[in-house]
Amino acid sequence: MKFLFVSVIGCLVICYFTGCSRSVEPVINEIRIISKKWVPDQREGICDVHIDFKTKKKVIVTGETNLPGAKNEILEAIISKGFIPKDEINLLPDLTVGIKKWALVNLSVANMRSRPSHAAEMVSQAILGTPVKVLKREEDWALIQTPDRYIAWTNSSSLSFYDAKEITSWRQSNRIIYLGNTGVITEESGDVVADIITGSILQKEGESDQWVKVILPRGDVGYVDKEKVVNFNDWKQTVAPSAIALVTDGKSLMSIPYLWGGTSVKGLDCSGFVKSIYFQNGVVLARDASLQIRYGQQVDISEGYDLFQAGDLLFFGPSDPCRVTHVGMYIGNSEYIHEAGRVKVNSLDSTRTNYNRYRKATLLGARRYIGEPSQQGIRAIHDHPWY
């Protein structure tokens, strides 16, 4: 009996076969193309599909995806090639999630990992009040997708779970965003309820001359310094990145230590640093430097830094093979601010004392986001449906 098993993971197709006919090659190639189209990067999507060719015509299609369109297109492609598929693809969110397919981060920072284990690599973070999609759950862990489309695991205890009606109510509620670097939420007595950091979003219950009364995602009530918050719904409609604001916010994070996977004031990696700056200015950037370089307006680097403007992102890495491994933000006068061990300022001018020869030699490209329309990878918060 002829037998072929094909695994499609993102855009990778692996075949195991004995006595296989070339008649299956067209469907394999078609699925490869579909997977690449829907999931160009596995950090931002799931399309893990397995095809078991049991007979000349009948196939069993298993695996999982978070993209209904990808699933439908794969099944249609199989049919168009003359095969009869039995659909066993698990569409995420799956049954382990139940009706609560949304969540809000309920800690100042939720650490996100590559696998459901504390020993796994930390790949990102999500901040208090961030809305996330819940794709599946496994014991004390949840696979989530953040507003930048990044997918990773976090502790279930870091989240408060919501159904569709509850998350809609949250989106329509009166909310505040915290714009101080760090602070605390307290009870009336002064006892600490929780810590709070830049970018945290909470429901507003009331206010006095000095304090705003807030409700945390897990239901706790507390008070936060009124001078460090603004109305979220007003803020998201008016905030927009400008060179002055981006540079000011970047410099406010000077000397914060490097943390792989960090996207908060508690620790930052290079792409997490620029992502945090832009979020404070109303834009959700793609998570990693190698993703960020795909968006925005390309800036010519052949003339050195003469064409750069403050707020442009500069991308660095080896040229052979061309691979982005670092990102910083240009702040003017030949200088850029970046997270490299700590947040610091270096120069592209060899006559300056803060000149960094290595970064100058490995500059790969520059991108401008200021003035660009809201789109995937540089989504304005006021345009983001999750908020």
Got a strand count? 29
Query: What CATH architecture of the largest domain do you see?
Result: Alpha-Beta Complex
Fill in the CATH topology of the largest domain: endopeptidase fold (from Nostoc punctiforme)
Mean pLDDT: 93
Alpha-beta classification? alpha+beta
| Count of discrete alpha- or pi-helical segments spanning 4 or more residues | 8
Q: Could you estimate the helical fraction of the residues in percent? A: 10-25%
Q: Span from first to last CA?
A: 54 Å
What is the C-level CATH assignment of the largest domain? Alpha Beta
Whole-angstrom Rg: 23 Å
Low-confidence stretches: 1-6, 9-20
Gross geometry? globular
Strand order of the largest sheet: 23-28-24-25-26-27
Fourth CATH level, the homologous superfamily of the largest domain: endopeptidase domain like (from Nostoc punctiforme)
Largest sheet: 6 strands, antiparallel
SS strand fraction? 35-45%
Number of domains: 4
Q: What's the helix and strand layout?
A:
Elements: E1 3-9, E2 12-18, H1 25-38, E3 47-53, E4 58-65, H2 68-80, E5 84-91, E6 102-105, E7 109-113, E8 122-127, E9 131-138, E10 141-145, E11 151-155, E12 159-162, H3 164-171, E13 175-178, E14 182-186, E15 192-197, E16 201-207, E17 211-215, E18 221-225, E19 229-231, H4 232-238, H5 243-251, E20 263-264, E21 267-268, H6 270-280, E22 283-285, H7 289-292, E23 297-299, E24 313-316, E25 326-332, E26 335-339, E27 343-347, H8 357-361, E28 363-368, E29 378-380
Parallel strand pairs: 4-5
Antiparallel strand pairs: 1-2, 1-3, 3-4, 6-9, 6-12, 7-8, 9-10, 10-11, 13-16, 13-19, 14-15, 16-17, 17-18, 20-21, 22-29, 23-28, 24-25, 24-28, 25-26, 26-27
